[in-house]
Amino acid sequence: MTNANRRDFLKGAAATVGGLAFTQWATTNFEAAAQGGQAYVIVSDVIRGAGGEPTGPSCVETSVFERGEQAVWRVVVYDAATGEAINTQEQVDARGLTMSVTPEGEDTIEMGFGQHPPASREPAAEDIIFYWTGVWEIGPASTGKFKYTITVQDSNGGMGTLDVAGNKDVDTFPIALEVS
């Protein structure tokens, strides 16, 4: 995403939220992270996965799911001090980053960093982006609204946290997931 031709979450969020509102959001998130002693700022959205028993289209942003579907988090991480995206495998490895997401009352899901779309789909170079993903297979007993927490940590103990429907000072899109 260092290439000017590549898409990134900030561009999408800016288009969705609007330039001025997005600028205020970004400033608030970085300021809150710095004041809270966080080393990283997390930007995330949630889409419906292609696995499970989907009732709607996959790879579409949503906060409403049916039991049996997959909720998939997509995350980009920024250095809170510099504002720069950490978006290459080399940067992730150099910092020793790990990331997880925990839906309220559910097990923690370890997230993976990688290329999207995958190399197996032979994407054009300008269409390749890198980000973190975590998949929640929504079980038959899961129902209701779910807050969730995304946490990133580096090998030196630096971390960042995004509490969705929790800490409103650093929420990007504060929407709890709803499962019916």
What's the short story on this structure?
The protein is α+β, with helices and mostly antiparallel strands and 180 residues long. It contains 3 helices and 11 strands; from the N terminus they run H-H-E-E-E-H-E-E-E-E-E-E-E-E. The chain has helices spanning 9-17, 19-35, 89-95; strands at 40-48, 64-65, 70-79, 98-103, 109-110, 112-116, 129-137, 144-146, 148-153, 159-164, 177-179.
What does this structure look like?
The chain is an alpha+beta fold and 180 residues long. The chain has one domain: Immunoglobulins (Immunoglobulin-like). Helix content is 18%, strand content 34%. Strand 9 and strand 10 form a beta hairpin. The radius of gyration is 16 Å and the shape is globular.
Write the layout of secondary structure elements.
Blueprint: H1 9-17, H2 19-35, E1 40-48, E2 64-65, E3 70-79, H3 89-95, E4 98-103, E5 109-110, E6 112-116, E7 129-137, E8 144-146, E9 148-153, E10 159-164, E11 177-179
Parallel strand pairs: 2-11
Antiparallel strand pairs: 1-3, 3-7, 4-5, 4-9, 6-7, 8-11, 9-10
Helix pairs in contact: 1-2
